User: Fold these one by one.
Assistant:
Number 1:
Amino acid sequence: MADEGLPVIARFEVRRRSYLAPDGSVLRPLPAFASDSATLLALYRGMVLTRAFDLKAVSLQRTGRLGTYAVSLGQEAVSVGIASAMREEDVLLPSYRDNGTLLWRGTKMEEILLFWGGDERGNLSSGPAHDFPYCIPVGSQAPHAAGVAYAFKFRKEPRVAVCLFGDGATSKGDVWEAMNFAGVHKLPVVFVANNNQWAISVPLKLQTASETLAQKAIAAGFAGEQVDGNDVIAMRAAAEEAIAQARAGGGPRLIEAMTYRLSDHTTADDAARYRPPEEVQARWKEEPIARLRAYLVSQKVWGKAQEEALAAECQKAIEAAIERYLASSPRAAETMFDYLYAELPRSYAGQRAELGGGSSNG
Amino acid sequence: MAEVTLVESINLALARAMEEDGNVVVLGEDVGINGGVFRATVGLQQRFGAERVIDTPLAELLISGLCVGMAAQGLRPVGEIQFMGFVYPCIDQLVNHASRLRNRTQGRLSCPMVLRTPHGGGIRAPEHHSESTEAMLAHIPGLRVVIPSSPERAYGLLLAAIRDPDPVVFLEPTRIYRAAKGQVEDTGEALPLDVAFVLRQGRDVTLISWGAMVRETLAAADELAAHGIDAEVIDLATLKPYDEETVLASVAKTGRCVIVHEAARTGGFGAEIAALIAERGLTSLLAPVARVTGYDTVMPLPRLEQRYIPSASRIVAATRKVCEFA
Amino acid sequence: MRQFMLPDLGEGLEEAEIVTWHVNEGDRVVVDQPLVSVETDKAVVEVPSPQSGRIARLFGGKGDLIKVGAPLVEFAEDGQGQDTGTVVGELGQDEKAVREAPTPAPARTLQVLPAVRALARKLEVDLNLVQATGPGGTITRADVERAAKSLAEVGPAEPLRGMRRAMAQRMAAAHAEVVRTTVTEEADIEDWRKGEDVTIRLVRAIASACQAEPSLNAWYNAEAGERRLIKRIDIGIAVDTEGGLIVPVMRNVGERDARDLRAGLDRLRADAAARSIPPEELRGATITLSNFGMIGGRFANLVVVPPQVAIVGAGRIDQRVLVHNGAPAARRVLPLSLTFDHRVVNGGEAARFLVALKAALERAS
C-alpha cells in the first residue's frame, strides 16, 4: 500500500521467549523457579518419562499389542512445561499428542495404553475428573475450552481452561471461532499452539502465510507470544504467566510453542515419504531433553549415575504399567450401551440384551 | 391459564427453566437484546442479565461447541441456531462430541445441553430457511431429537429437554410458531421424553406424524371420518429415541398405517417407522404402510412450497387408498 | 547398503563407549527406535534409529569406543519400511476374492398381504386358486373366504405325478415352440381284405409317404435354424397304457416286411403294458403315428413333438356314405389327420405327403 501519509491505526508485536540455547547454555536471566533445582529436576524427569513411555508404546504397537499411537518425540518440553504451570482445579483440553501433560496431571500410564489399546475405560483417567479426554477432530476442542472458561467466569471461579492444539488446528474455523469469542468475553483460557512444523505431511509454509501463529491472537483481540518449545524453562515460564493472567481476569492468551515433530505423525505414518531424514537429524540437535540435561549437568545437579538411575526407574514403572495393561480384558460387549445416555431408553434394551445374551441373530 | 402461541410457550418454558435453575444459560445470535428473530427469547436478557443470555458472534459451530464445554462444566446451556438451514456447521460438535462425551469418558463427563432451532417450511422464506432434515440427527446414537406440535407440548417438552442430563436437539415448527394456540399453564411441569402422544383414538388406520404436519394430519382425520374411516392420530414428538411400543400397539389395533412428514421421502424418518412395522408388526398389517411426505427434491422456493408440503387432502387420499385393501 | 554414523553428541565430544545394543543384526527397526546406549563423560545417551529398515550389521560391541561420525549401524538394501497405506489403524489385505452370484429376478409372486396369507393358511385355501379382486391385483380376505366356500364343493387337489406330469411339461414345451398346422383326409379302405392289420398298414403307408415326400421325415433344430432330412424311417407309435401315453419307436420301418413289423409291434405293446420298455426305445423317432381311432374320434389337431416335424393321426374306421364311381355308396373310411410344423414344412409338402399316405392306404391288400 502506498504511503500517502495515511495514519497507521494498528500495529502489533510478537515477542519470542527463550532462556536456554540448544546446547543448554543460558541466554538471559532465568525466571525465579529455575533457581530451584528440585523444580527443574521434576521437569526433567517428566520429559524423560514421557519419552521413554512413548517409545515403549511404539514397540507395543509394532508387536500388535496397541493400536495406532501418536508419540510426542521432541515435544516433551511443551507437554511438561504447560502441565507444570497448571493447578489441579484448572481444566486441560488436550489434542491427541499430549500424553506428557496427561501423565504430569496424574493419568496413569496403563490408562493411556488402555485407551489407545482400544478401550474407552482408558478415559476414566486418574487425572483430574474435570479434564477433557483426547480430542481427535482437530481443533474441535477449542470451542469446548471457551465454553469451560465461560463457566468459570460465570461462576466467578479462579480457574483456567488450557487448550492444546497443533499448527494444523490453527487453520480450522473451530480455533478461530473459539479464540474470537474468548477475546470478546475476556475468558480465562490459555490456548497453546504446539507448532511442531508438520501436520502429517503438510509443512507449516503450506498451512499458513502468517509469519507466526502467535499473531493470530491479535486478530481475536488478545496477546500472543512465541516460545522456544524445546526450552522447558521458557515453556513453563510462558504458561505460568499466561495462566496467572487469565486467572486474575486478564483474559486469554495464545502461546505458540516452536518445536519439531521428530517422529512420524503416528505409528502408521512414514515421514520419510515427505521429509528428508537429514532435516530430522539436524533438528535432533535442538531437542529438549538433551538441552535441559546439559544445563543441569553444567549446574552440577545431574550426572551419569542419576541418569542411569532415572532410566531404570522409568523402565520399571513403564514395564509395570504395561503388565497391568496387558492383563486387562475387554469389557463385556453389552456395556457398549451403558454410557450412551444417563439412563438407557427402553427401545434399546433389546439390542443390549442381544449383545449380552449371546443370541445369534443380528 | 392463558392462551398462548407456540413461540410464546417456548418463551415461557425458557423463563421458567432459567428461574428454577441458575445454571441455565441461553446463547445464540440475536437472542439477547433482540429477543431472538422469532421472539422466542424475548425479555429473557432483561430479566436474567447478559451473562445468562448471550449474544454470540456469528458462528454456529461455536454455539454448539460452547454448549459442549459449558455443559461438561455443569451449566445447562440452551443454544439457539437461527434456522435449521444453519445447523449444519454444528453437526461436527453434535455428532463427534455432544452425543459421545458421556460414552467416551465412561460417564466421567456428560453433556446436558439443548440446541433449539426452527424447523420446516411454509413461511414463504428465502432459500435455506425451510429445512426439515431431522432424519439426519435422529440417526445419531447418544442424541435426543424432540419436536413439539402444539404450545402445550412445546412448553412441557422443552422443560423436559432442558432438565434432561443428555444432549437434546429441539426442533420448533416455524410455520405454527404463531398459528398454533393453546392453553398453557406455567406450572413448570414437564412432559415425558421418549413417549408418543395419541391425539385421536381410532379403529381403522393409524396416522403418525410430528411437528407442524400434525395439524394437517388431524384435519385429515376429521375429513376421513366423513368417509367412514376412523383414524387414530399419533404425534411421535420424540424422534430419537422414539416410542416403538405405542406405534406397534396402534398398528396391531388398526392394521393400517400412514406416516406423514414434511421432510423428503427417501431416508426420511418415516422409513425407520415403516421398517419397524415390517419387522415387528407385519402380521397385523391389512394394507401396505404408506408414507405421505415431501418430495425427493430440494425444498422449492416459496412459489411452489405449498405443493411440496403435504396437504390434508394428500393425506386423505393416501389413507383412503390404504383403506381399500381388505 | 546405508550406513548410519554415530551422530554428534554435543558438547564437543568426539567419541563414546558402547554400553548396550538394543537391537541385533537382522532385526527390523523403525524410525526413532533406540539402537544403542552409548556413554560419554557426561551421561549415557540413547541413539535412535534415523530410519526404518533391517539391520545388516552392527559396528562394535559392548565396551568399544566409537568416534562421532564413524559407522555405527548398516541397514540392509531393502531400505525403507513398508508403506502401511494409512495414517491410523490397519488396512487389511485379504486376498480372498468375494464371489458375487447375481441371482435372476424372481418370478412375479402373488400379491397377498400377510394377514390375508395367514387367513388362507388357516382355511387351507391354495392362494393360486383364488381370484384377486383387491387393488393392484391383491387378494383380499373376502376373496379368500369366497374361494374357501367354493373349494369345499370340489374334489381335493391331486398333484400331477409321473407320466401325467411329464406329459404336462412336454406338451407345454412343444406348444410354445411349434407352429402347428393340420390337414385332413379320408382313406377309402372298403377294398381291404378282412382282418387286415390296421396299424401295420398305417406304418407301411407312412413309410411310403415319407419316401414320396421326405421333408416330413426330418428333425428341426430351431435354435440353430437347421433341418435334417433323415433317410431311415423310425416311427414312434403312440401307445395308451394304464400309466398314460408312451411312444415306443419302431426302427427302420422302410426296410422291414409286414411280418417283422407285426412281431416288433406286438413286442413293443407287450413291453409297454409291462412297463419294461428301456428308455432308448422311446427316443429318436423321426415321425409319429397316433392311432387314436382305436379308441374313438375321427380327426384331430395333434401335437408335434420336437425335433420331429410331423405326426400322423388315424381316426376310427367307420362306414360313411361316399360317392364311389359316380354314385353314393356306403364305404369303410379311415380318417387321417396330418399335423405338421409349419416353420419347416410347407403346405405343398404336407399335402403331397397326405396324398401319398392316402394312396398307400387305399391300395388293395
Note: The two ends of chain A are 68 Å apart (CA to CA).
Number 2:
Amino acid sequence: MLALVAGVGLASQPGRVQAAEVPDLTYFSIEELMQIKVVSATKVEQALQDIASAVFVITADDIRRSGVTNVMEALRLAPGVEVARVDSSRWAITIRGFNGRFANKLLVLIDGRSIYTSQFSGVYWELQDLFLPDIERIEVIRGPGGSLWGANAVNGVINIITKNSEDTQGGLVTLTAGNEERAIAGVRYGGKLGDSTQYRVYGQFSERDGLATLNGRDAGDDWRMSKGGFRLDWAPSAQDKIAVQGDRYEGNFDQNYVFSTLVPVIPAVNSEFSKKELVKVNATGGSLQAHWEHQYSAASQIGLQVYYQYADREEPLYIADTDTFDIDFQHNFTLGDRQNIVWGLGYRRNWDQFTDTVLATVNPRSATTELFNAFVQDQVDLIPEQLRLTAGVKLEHNDFTGWEWQPSIRMLWTPRPNHHLWAAISRAIRTPSRGEENAQTSLYALPPSPVTGNLPTLIALLGNNQLDAEKLIAYEAGYRVQLAGQFSIDTTVFYNDYDQVVGTVLGTPFLETGIVPPYLVLPLQLENAQSGYDTGFELAADWRPMPAWRMQLAYSYLHSNIKRLDDPTDYSFNLNQISVLSSWNLSNDLELDAWGRYVNRDGSILTLSPFNRVKIDPYFSLNLRLGWRPRKDLEFSLAGTNLLDGGGGHLEYVQEAYTFPVEVQRSLYGQMKWSF
Amino acid sequence: MRRWLVCLIIALLMRPLGAEVYSEYVLKAAYLYNFTKFVEWPQGVFPAANSPLVICIAGADSFGDALTTLDGKMVEGHPVEVRLFFLAARPDQCHVVFIGRSEQGQFKAMLAKLARLPILTVSDISNFSQAGGIIGFFEAEKRIRFSINIAAAEQANLKLSSQLLKLAVIVGDPRRADP
C-alpha cells in the first residue's frame, strides 16, 4: 500500500528525475505487462501541441515546486495571465487585459463546473482556496473559448482539473505554518469500494494573516476558510466512466471597506466624508456534480454532466443567495478518417435572492434566469498530419440579451514534426450580469463645495437593464517548437477588437431631499460605452539543461487601448510581465527551487473611489523553496515568498471601489506532507 | 527446481500488479525485450550463436534511463544491445527498430526504407501498424496494449509466435496482399 501511494506520487510528476532507480520490468511476461497501469507524461503535452490556440498547462509538479499555497498564486506561472493580489483574501485575475477584482471576461471551471458568480460574472477568488494535492493540472487557454465554452469565455478559460480518485489512494496529511500563512492543515483519504470503484474524501482548514497598509501597519484583513469534499470514480464497464463529486466551504474574511457618509465623519472637520471600517464577510457554499462518459467505439463517445451549486454571501456590498443548476451533453465522433466532430447541448438555471444593504439595492430582489446553448465544432485534416482546419460555432440564448452566436475558425499547420504554426479568428461575447442590469450602489461621497451649492455629493453607480452584450473579434497566431525533448518554446501574438464594452457614463446630477440632510447625487450610469483594442505578445519557454534541472520562462506583453464614449482621456497602458521558475534536484531527495517575477504596468488603475487613479510601481519578487524527502512517504519544505520585500511590502493592485490600497508582504513558511 | 520456486514466490509476492503504476517508457522497454523472445528472425541474420541482438532507437530518445534495464539481458543466447539508430552504420545492423513519436512526420518514409529487411519495427506513433509498421503501441484504460500487422511481419520475413499474436490486436488481413 505504501509503495503504491509513493509510486503514484512520483510517477505523476514528470519533472522529477528518477535516474537512481529504474524499476526493471523485463522479468514480467507480456500478459503481466498488459496489466500494468501507466501514467503518460507526454499524453497531455502531445495533445496540446496539436491545438490551434494558446494553451499553457500548469502541472501538479509546477504547483508544488513554485512554493505557492493557493491556486491564485500558481496562475502567475502562465503567460498572458495577470494575477494581482488586492488584499489578503482578494485577487484581481484576468487574461489579456481588463483586470480588476470584479474582472468579468474570464471563464473559470473546476472539473467542468463554472465557478463564476452571476452577480458580476466574475470569480470570488477568496473562495477558491483549493486543496492543492488534489489538483492534477490547470489548463490556461488564452483567447476566446466562446465557440466551445460559451458566453464569458471572452478573453480566456482557466480549467482546473482534479485527480481521479484512483490516483489519490491511501492517506495524506499536509501541514503548513508561517508568519503570513499562519496555518493550513489538510487531510485526505482514498480507498476502494469493490474492484471498479475508488473514492477519496478530504478536508482543509486555512488561516492567513492580513496584509499591510501603505504606511506599514497591519491592514487587519485576515481570512479563514474551511473546505471539505469527496470524489467517487466508478467504471461500471470498460466503456463507461462515472465520476461523482461534491464539496462544501465556509469562509470568514475580515475585509476593509470605505463607506461613504453624508455627514462629516468628524463634525468639526468638514472635509472627510468617508470612513474606513474592517468588516466581517461570511460566505458559504457547496456543489454536487456527476459526470458520465460512455465510449461507443474508438471513434465515438458521449459525455453527460450535471451539477448543482449554491453560494450564500453576506457583506456590506450585498447579501445574496445564489443557486445554479446546469446540465451539459456532448458527443464526439469521427467522420471518415479526416474529420472529428464535437457537438453538444447545455442548459443552465440560476436563482438568486438579494437583500438591500447600506451600499446596494437590487431590483427585482429575486430573479430566475435561464441559459440554453448548442454548439458544433468540426476538425478537418485537410492534409493529414500537416494541415488541420477547425471551425465551430456556439448558439446561446440568455434572458438579458436574447440570442447570441459565437463562431471561430482555426488553422494548424505542421510544416515539420514538432513545429506548429496556427492562426485563428473568433468572435466572443459577454452577457451582462444581474449586478450590471439591476443593482444601484453608493460608491463614495464628496464633501460640500461651492460648485455643489455647499451640499455633500454622493457618487452612485446605476445598473441598466437595457445593456447589450459586449463583443469581441479576436485575431491570434502562434508558433511552437519542440527541440530534442530538452527545449520547447511557444509564442503567440493577438489583437483583440472590442466593441460595446460596459462602462460608466456621467448622468445628470439631481437633488435628493427625501433624507436629512439633503445631498446631491451624481449618477454614473452603466452603458455599452467603451470600445478599443488590446494587443500583445506571449512567450513560454521550457528548458532542461540537465536531467536534474528545469527552467520555465513566461513573458507577456500587453498594450491596452480602450476608449470611452465622450471622454478624450487616454486610458491606454502597457503591461510587461516576466516569470522565471528554476526547479533543481540537488540530489535524489533534495530540491531547490527559485522563482523570480518582474511586473511593470505603466498607466494607472482607474478606480471609482476617492483615490481616483492609483499608480502601481514596477516590482520584482523572489520566491525560494527547499524541499527534502527523507522517505518516500514524507516531504518537508521551507519556502519564502516575496523575499525582496524587507520592511514594507509592494502594491500589486487596488480594488475598483469601496476599499483602499494595501501591500503584499514577505511570507516565510514550513510545510510537511505525510502519506500513509 | 528450487530457483524456479523462488521465481514463482517472487512473482506471487509482486502480484498486486494491476495497482502498481509505472512510467510509460519503463514499461515499453520491458515490452521491447519481451517481444524479441517471440520473434524468429530468418537464418543468417545472426552471424554467430552469440552475436548481439541489436535494438535501435530512432528519433528523440523518450526512454531516458529506462533502457538501462535491458543491459546485460540475453535472448536465446544473444546479448541484447541498445543503439541509437542514426549511429548504426547500416539499418540492417538492427534487429528491432523502435521509432519514437518525434518521427511522426517521417516514419512512413522510414518504413519504406526498412520494408523487406528482417527488422521488427515497433512504435508508439498512433496507427503505426495500420500504416505498415509491425507492432504499434497504444494506450487503453491507462494500460499499454499493442497491435500487430501480420502482413508487414510476413513481408519482413519474420515469424511471430502465435502466443504473441493471441495477445495483440491484429490489423491488416494476411490473406490480402497489403499495399
Note: Residues 185 and 467 of chain A are 45 Å apart (CA to CA).
Number 3:
Amino acid sequence: MAESPQVVERKDDSVLVTEAKAGSYAAFEELVNRYENKIYRLGLNLTGNPEDAEDMLQEAFLKAFLHLPDFREDARFYTWLVRIAINEGLMKLRKQRADKSVPIEETVSEDGEALPREFSDWRPDPEEQYKQAEIEKILQQAAQSLPPGFRTVFLLRDVEELSTRETAELLGLTEGAVKARLFRARLQLREELSKVFKRG
Amino acid sequence: MKCNSCLQQISSYLDGEIDAELKRTLEEHLRGCHHCEVIFDSTKKTIELYCDGELFQLPTATRDRLHAALRRHWQEKAG
C-alpha cells in the first residue's frame, strides 16, 4: 500500500502564541525559529556589529518570552516582536553614541537636499558578482553611513515592512516625518551602493 | 515633468502612493530620461538587496546561545 505523503501543517503565529501562552515551550520555540534570522539581520543593519546584534536578538526574544502573557494580539506577533527588538537596538545605539559623545538624533533636516550624484547604471546582479560576505559588508557599511534616525525608518519600513503609521507610532514621529526620512534614506543608500555597484 | 519633480515622487511611487494621473506622467518621464530611470531602478534594487533573505544568516553558534538562554529562562519560570 502506498503511503500518503506526510504533510506538516504550518500553524499560524496566532495559534503558536496561544499555545505558548498556555505553557508550550515547543510553540514558543517555533516562533523563535521563524523570526530569529530576521531579528538578527535587523540588529546587524541597525547596530553595525555582530556583538550588539546578538545582544539585541537575545534581549528581544527574552523580553518577548517574559511579556508574552501581556501580548494582547491587536498586532501581528512579528510586528510586536520588531517593536521590542527595535527598542533594544535603539538602546544599544544610544550607548554606542554616548561612548562617543555624539547624540543619536543629529540635527539632520528631513527636507534638506538629497540630490543624487551617481547616475551610472549598475552592473547586473551584484549578488552574483560578489561573495555573500562582501555584499553583507557593503550593505552594512552603507546602512551605517545613514544617521540612526533615518536608518531606523528605512529598516522598519522597507525591510521589516511596517506601515508608515506603525513606524511613526513606534518612533514617536509624524507620518510626514517618516515619509521624508524614508525618501532621504533610500536615496542616500542608493548613492552609497552606486559607488560600489556602478558599471565601469 | 522635470527631473527634480520626478525625483521627489520616486519614493511615493515605489510605495504605490501616487494617483493614477501622476503615475502616468512619471512613467512617461522615466521612459524618456535615462538618469531618472537609473535612479529609480537602483533605488528599487537597493531595497531588494536589504530584503534578500539569503544574506545575514544567523551564525549557528549565535543561534545555539539564544536557544540555550531561552530554554534556561523557560525552565526557571516553570520551576
Note: Chain A has two domains: 13-99, 126-197.
